[in-house]
Amino acid sequence: MPPAVKWTEKYRPDTLKQVLGNGKAIEELRAWAASWEKGMPITGAVILYGPAGTGKTSAALALAREFDWDYIEMNASDARTASMIQKIAGPASRSMTFSGKPRLVILDEADNLHGTADRGGTAAMLRLVRETSQPVLLIANEYYDIEKPLRDAAKGIQFRSVRSTTIAQALREICRAENVDCDPDALMMIAERAGGDMRSGVNDLQAAAQGQATLKLEDVATAERDVKSSIFKVLEVIFKGNSAQEALQASYALDESPEDLINWVDENLPLAYGGEDLWQGYERLARADVFLGRVRVRQNYGLWRYASFLMTGGVQAAKAAARHGYVAFRPPSRWRRMGQTKKARNIRDSAAKKIGHRCHVSAAFVRAELMGFVGLLLADKKKAVPLAAELELDADEIALLLGSTTSAKKVQSIFEGAMKMRAAEEFEEIELGWTNRAQQPIGGTPLTRAAQAGADEPLAIIVNAGAETTSIVKTVQPPAENVAPTIEPKQGEPAVADGELKGSAAKPEGRKRGRPKKTESEGKGEAKPGKRQKSLFDF
Q: Count of alpha carbons within 13 Å of 447, Cβ hemisphere only?
């Protein structure tokens, strides 16, 4: 028996006209595609964003079919690392098709890139969008989860939740195609419980009606879905609603912590309220912030419920009369500023850590007290290069301490001078290390060990060729005024000084093996008769 075909795929729209709901978004998408057909694209890429099941992927595929475009798709099941995007989507976005028509590059779930599995995917997507010569279409659920540079490089088209009546109409057409007699009340119940998700409605209909000739109300066994609410919907309830309890309940369906929600309310409160209402709203919000501070200090998260009620129901009750009209809610600007200054803060912390390590103080103390002082020292031409070399500062840290830019000539001069000084110090340390290294290899010869032990002191080498033995004796160089005594030679022999080599040229005629025979200079140079000078072999 062949497997059942999913109705969501079987009845997927073939043209943009068949995509129900979001008529405005469909028109914007068609206009963007038409501009590519004319060779004058509005933008290189568009972002289709909105809740799940609203027809974003269906619209993308219907667009390719309607304009007869070739397309390539990458979704969450594919590895979307930088290398994979460059390998697959990169060539597709730069090469033409054989027909000469554009090729549509579809990147699904662009807001859901994971750090390990999709490492570098966001940067690769941004590069692809900026360098593409083919239309690129990104699909996302949350628009603001996409990096801001990527949002700015593409045109955003919003898809909203589909109305229940529209979903019921689509379900009725599917029942007619499947020859299923459906009760209108049953279809409306499925549509309402879908929560604006067309895909969920079709799946519920298939689960209830497949294999049946009729579908009645009692056959519908689906329950209401736990749908995560959007932050913008919650803000609508808080600022324009009339029930404090309703505002609090709306925040429960939000995937935001109280610390994040209070930033959203704080940012949009001046946009929604004014006059006395604004003052009262900030009064409630300040009390909520007090409770959040107590949570951080005491780690008592039970106080979150008081903070949540004050920032939702309390702010809603602050207005004297109901407020209406469109308000363009925006994300917290504090988050944007923190993102913009993240690099500068990282450079500041790195410089403070290096200064604190040399000064034996904490990085916090350096940030509070020493950053300006070190900046003044770097402004001095004589002290700048040695100080930067000692602290091992890079160009960004030098620019931060001087209050300048990395490309400034002064910053580059200090950085290059510090690099040269550090390189010279490293070279000098290597030379000193080799010079002062104790070169005493294990198993070395006595001659090598003696030479390493006292390289600056003269050595007396006594060789007995017959016994094939060499004795090395360390002697002390006498002072300059003391002349080495001359030994009276025998008749017919030249005079030699004490400590010189003698007997090295003697022939080994019948001499026995064993201790070498003492030389004449050795015997006469001893202070006490019967004692000899020790050699290295005796130790």
A: 7
